[in-house]
Write a structure and sequence with these properties.
Layout: H1 6-25, H2 30-40, H3 46-72, H4 76-95, H5 105-122, H6 136-156, H7 161-171, H8 177-199, H9 207-231, H10 233-255
């Protein structure tokens, strides 16, 4: 792991564990893990950090996806097309990740989180029960478009992807929060895999660090998924609002220069 000190490594492992837990419950673990990598690895390129983040994240989404699949049993008629188009979108996004200026990253995420958080907060009944907006081919088409759009964002930037998947599945397609979280984890696994398919051949992944963080992320993902399934949709909704609020404060304060 090169010149990473013990203190930095412990910090990154702790953040990876927290990211795995948050990601498994409601998504958005990248908003913890990616900034931690930026702090811990000031000499790494943005694409190296993004690629290493993907490697660590896929470990957590793998175990969380398996846990949700066994315990919630999401409908494959929705999650399979969602995963396929999320994969394609993420691969396309990763291909253009080199072109996106770093200065554009946080403002985009902040605006998206403000919209998502306000919408969920102002509609307390949202996500309590599954009330699908459409059925048949229109439902499948909406899932495909969701996968393509959020997948592209994940490949190009990444942080908050799980939260955006959850919000889209709840607000657009009409799933409850628990069902949406299950499908979001499966789609997020596909986006992580697609991005790695682009980054690995270019040698962007820091393997030693990424796998170490992956083990911590996996542990957090397992505990987070089991907690979400056990506590139910109301817990997931409350956790979603808390996490989005924390991200808004952190990113907004950084843009305003309140902290580094």
């Amino acid at each position: 792991m090169g010149d990473v000190t013990t203190g930095v490594l412990l910090f990154l492992l702790l953040m990876a564990f927290a990211a795995g837990f948050v990601d498994a419950v409601v998504g958005g673990g990248g908003l913890i893990q990616l900034p931690a990598l930026l702090i811990g690895l000031p000499g790494a390129s943005p694409v190296q950090i993004l690629a290493t983040n993907k490697l660590a994240s896929i470990c957590g989404t793998t175990v969380a996806s398996a846990t949700y699949y066994r315990r919630v049993g999401p409908d494959p008629r929705t999650f399979l097309p969602l995963m396929l188009f999320a994969f394609l979108g993420s691969a396309a996004g990763a291909a253009v990740a080199y072109l996106i200026p770093r200065s554009a990253f946080e403002p985009i995420v902040l605006v998206a989180l403000l919209v998502v958080g306000a919408y969920v907060l102002l509609r307390p009944e949202l996500g309590d029960v599954t009330e699908l907006r459409w059925d048949g081919h229109r439902h499948t088409a909406a899932a495909m478009l969701t996968g393509l759009a959020v997948g592209f964002y994940d490949g190009a930037l990444g942080p908050g992807t799980g939260s955006f998947f959850v919000f889209s599945l709840v607000g657009l397609l009409g799933y409850d929060f628990l069902e949406a979280s299950a499908k979001a984890r499966l789609a997020n696994w596909a986006t992580n895999l697609a991005a790695l398919c682009v980054f690995v051949p270019h040698g962007e992944v820091l393997w030693g660090l990424g796998l170490s963080m992956g083990a911590a992320n996996l542990t957090g993902g397992y505990l987070g998924a089991r907690t979400a399934v056990a506590r139910g949709r109301r817990f997931v909704r409350a956790f979603f609002i808390a996490v989005v609020s924390a991200f808004v404060v952190r990113i907004g304060g950084e843009l305003l220069g309140l902290w580094g």
